[in-house]
Records
---
Amino acid sequence: MDLHEELLEHAAKLDAADPLARMREEFDLPAGTVYLDGNSLGAPPRRVAGRMAQVVGQQWGGRLIRSWSEGWWTAPERVGERIAPLVGAAPGQVVVADSTSVNIFKALTAAVRTAPPGRREIVVDADTFPTDGYIAASVAELTGAVLRPVPVDALESALGDRTAVVLLNHVDYRTGRMHDMAGTTALVHAAGARVVWDLCHSVGVLPIELDALGVDAAVGCTYKFLNGGPGAPAFLYVPSRLQDSFDQPLSGWGGHREPFAMEPGYRPAPGIARARCGTPDILSLLALEAALEVWEGVDLAEVRAKGLSLTGFFAACVARLLPPGTVEVITPMDGPRGHQVSLRHDRAEAVMAELVGREVIGDFRTPDVLRFGFAPLYNSHADAARAALALADVLGAPPAGRA
Ligand SMILES: Cc1ncc(COP(=O)(O)O)c(C=O)c1O
Ligand SMILES: Nc1c(O)cccc1C(=O)C[C@H](N)C(=O)O
């Protein structure tokens, strides 16, 4: 058997033993496409199209404006309850609203505003996804705080009695490295500061325990591993113990205690509703609601195990197929990681364009990173093998000999 056949056969064995294999049926994916970009835009769950037709036809079209009091206005909290179990949150602490960028702004500003006098530093991961750093800089400017970008590995020495809040990514978007949420949260708390976690690349990837770890706020996208659709609204977690003092700056009427009283002054709503701002984005929100239904009965431990298996198998295939040194694996394959494998190559942009032309869809991240994201609900080991074979072909690896 040659190496190609061996890898495909191994993949088939792993897929035959996959307890989540049935979940692929829930998704609409073009036949023949290997889709490895669910860490940027998740694939559409089949049920979303039908739900959208119903929402547009029956709710918007049939009930017209009455729909606001028939489930639309309360959708941000209702859909938040579907995300809560995925992040280890008891009910009443997650709302779906706005974008991740906007929610970072709310959470950071609230944290700085309520920090004790003297705590005026915002610490941010120096390698963070850009929007997090940009927003943190803006919050610093608006609140008179000081922005302190630090590499995550140097975090401990940067914390002190001037730290107000720390903003961190759970999984690094470029390398896929996963940071230690339990240890880092404890470290930040020991320094007397608050921590805001960006869960964009970890929600839907592994069990997360926000309540148990005492996290102070968390945000995340819903259009990646939660498959909510392009531009689907983000979520914001504020634990019950901090909700009364959550002094968020975007005091739109959506977060008012009595929005329809149309009062001249702002009185924040009790509970998580105060994290809202303006009118909810109903069509996207209800598409997300349908997409989240696929998680019912899904065991996150199984999702995690499969994600590690897919990424490990893909990296192993790449190592077997490519001569050493062809690519540099920058994802910590022996350490904590999310569900992506990132490879460095000088011609990464052109290589990814070639792969996409062959219907193997990952993405390129500047300056030289090929990213392959694995979504355990719809990706298979066969996808991983096919992607590695296509990559080897594009990079002109010598034809695989007999194993
Ligand atoms: C870590 C991280 N934070 C934030 C965002 C995006 O935020 P927004 O949805 O506001 O564009 C992304 C992806 O786009 C991301 O990877
Ligand atoms: N949000 C995106 C968009 O609107 C267009 C293209 C890509 C994105 C992304 O989500 C990028 C993604 N956060 C990343 O990790 O690179």
---
Amino acid sequence: MILVLVEVSPAGEAIETSREAVTFARDLSAAGGGVPIDAVVVGSPDDALVKTLATHGVRRVHALTGPAYDAFSGAAWAAGLMAVREKAGAVVVMAAGTPRGNEVLAHVGARTGAPMAANVISFGGLSPFTVTRQVVGGAALEEMQLGMRPAIFSVAGHAVEASAADVPGDGELVVETPEVADADLVARVVSTEEPAPDLSGALKSARVVVGAGRGAGSADGFGELLELAELLDAPLGVSRVVTSLGWRPHHEQVGQTGSRISPDLYIPCGISGAIQHWAGCSSAKAILAINSDPDAPMVTKATHAVIGDLHEIVPAINEEIRRRRAG
Ligand SMILES: Cc1cc2nc3c(=O)[nH]c(=O)nc-3n(C[C@H](O)[C@H](O)[C@H](O)COP(=O)(O)OP(=O)(O)OC[C@H]3O[C@@H](n4cnc5c(N)ncnc54)[C@H](O)[C@@H]3O)c2cc1C
């Protein structure tokens, strides 16, 4: 049996990436000759959720209930998943590659001693059980063999498109109340708050983005860069160093842990082009790098580059734009 942890939204629906994981499980099931797929959800699912999972091919929906499951705890969810797995004999344990999915599966891996592959995008065969997964924030792919059972892996978001099965599953609801040790409840969510409003929208959809990195020099070093951004009607996008130092707000960050941008023109000034920054800007159609180091990765990858001090080059560009517009 293939066991898939399905995360449920506050509205009581299976989240899209979990439905993608179930869709991925169907391919595995077919490769294994029709291995049944069971889902584990935390809490009491309503009929609509059970029906949705059945539509996606799920045979049984195991609902983990009890006070231990009132709030998220990676260890407690893993204990529940393990209890269902031992009772029902799963050979594969999966989840969506969300922060929670990866955390819970890491606990399952630690408890079983089996390796866990995070953010898998495809599987290459059952013997040996081989998967391909994203590493370095999606910048590289790695092939991994999962020789032990259960095979444990999470599915990277949007690696497959969630879809209904040709033949729906039975969708039988099984209520589970597994024992959870006190030690598994030590780290659990005690309160939640609404996320801050997403202010990065302009950055993600901009045609031109002016970038600024450590080369700006200090929190006071952004004057001419902001001026260039205003002249080009472009938002400012910055590196993580800049946000970590508190020079600019986090919603301006570009990269693996910031916004992914795809403008017609990106103008990174004083940004080295570390792989985590590149992950967020590599879709730019053209890059004009301004940097004092001719060997900086951003310079070597750029469409065009100006080598020198940004505090001299950017004011000169601003001046030229103003002069041409005045003319
Ligand atoms: C898990 C993880 C996630 C991360 N996520 C992100 C992310 O989302 N986004 C991100 O940006 N980083 C991210 N990082 C950090 C990343 O590895 C780099 O440390 C960061 O991008 C470097 O920022 P920087 O280019 O501004 O600084 P530096 O690497 O220090 O580069 C500064 C550049 O400025 C140039 N320079 C200096 N002075 C001048 C001047 N006067 N004029 C012109 N050029 C000048 C230098 O030649 C150099 O190329 C992440 C790191 C980790 C480990």
